[in-house]
Design a protein that fits this description.
The chain is mostly helical. It is about 65% helix and about 5% strand. It contains 13 helices and two strands, in the order H-H-H-H-H-H-H-H-H-H-H-H-E-E-H. A two-stranded antiparallel ribbon has the order 1-2. The radius of gyration is 45 Å and the shape is elongated.
């Protein structure tokens, strides 16, 4: 295969020239089994969308690299396996396990590859849990060996914008932006501007939170008033339906007839006189006996019709 040939030919560059016939032939190093497993895991992830199988293949590849000495190829394969494994965990909605899964292989946070650390920051910040990677990123940035890497500046900026600012750690973010030599002039100014914007927003939030209780009280009063009005409306509807019912109407007419009879046979009482008061004068109506008789006859007739 072409891949085998190119990989096998790479070590020949450091031999210092062609082999002589008298020198024994040197065995060419074979391709690492983890490389084939990495390709298989990538196919399972991208082509077949079999995320559990892709994760399991990555773990088998890691086990095969346990006895391999550290080299450039091994470091690259390990980083690629982590990238595939992180994507598989995220696709299975197991993103909370990403950091622990990565650290079980690297163990020391300072030894995480920059690409893996970047993926962890982006993943946890997107899921709105940047605090999960805070300690790991702080440890990685404080390591002297990592401060000379070309990716250090971009990871420091990502840490400020995606981790420290969302967590409200403005002083730490400002200290990192001002104290790190990895930031360029324009990069530092952009980061400081983002910190100033976040500080302004944090000072405005207490004012807005103090103004919120008043509208909430007014809103609660309005809701209570509307619920009271609806309750009164239902009560009035039930009372009105009860008043318009046949038994109650007959009872009311019977009570009126009884009152009229009392007025008829007790002419000396003051209840016989009906007072209609309006403003500053009084209209006094005397109920004539014939009128009372007519009203009683009409009410009897009305009750019988009902």
């Amino acid at each position: 295969m072409k891949s085998d040939a190119s990989t096998s030919a790479a070590p020949l560059k450091g031999l210092g020239g062609p082999l002589r016939s008298s020198e024994p032939a040197r065995a060419l190093p074979a391709v690492l089994p983890a490389v084939h497993l990495l390709e298989e895991a990538s196919d399972l992830l991208v082509v077949h969308l079999d995320f559990p199988a892709a994760l399991e293949t990555c773990e088998r590849a890691w086990e095969s690299l346990a006895e391999e000495p550290a080299s450039g190829t091994v470091v690259e394969v390990k980083c690629s396996l982590c990238v595939v494994g992180i994507q598989a965990l995220a696709e299975m909605d197991r993103w909370r396990e990403v950091l622990s899964w990565v650290l079980q292989y690297y163990q020391d946070p300072q030894k995480l590859p920059p690409k893996v650390l970047e993926l962890c920051i982006l993943l946890y910040s997107k899921m709105q849990e940047p605090g999960a990677v805070l300690a790991v990123v702080d440890a990685w940035l404080q390591d002297p060996d990592n401060q000379g890497l070309p990716e250090y500046g971009s990871l420091a900026e990502l840490h400020v914008l995606r981790v420290l600012l969302p967590l409200g750690r403005l002083s730490e973010a400002e200290g990192l932006a001002l104290g790190s030599a990895a930031f360029g002039k324009e990069q530092r100014e952009e980061v400081l501007q983002a910190i100033r914007t976040a500080r302004q927003q944090s000072t405005q939030e207490p004012l807005s939170s103090q103004e919120q209780p008043k509208p909430s009280q007014e809103g609660s009063f309005s809701r209570k008033l509307m619920s009271l009005l609806r309750l009164l409306h239902r009560l009035w509807g039930s009372v009105a339906s009860h008043l318009l019912s046949q038994p109650f109407r007959k009872s009311l007419l019977a009570a009126l007839i009884l009152c009229l009879l009392v007025l008829r046979f007790d002419p000396g009482t003051m209840s016989q006189q009906l007072f209609l008061r309006r403003r500053n004068f009084t209209v006094r109506i005397h109920l004539h006996p014939e009128v009372l008789g007519t009203m009683i006859a009409f009410l009897y007739h009305f009750v019988d019709d009902s």
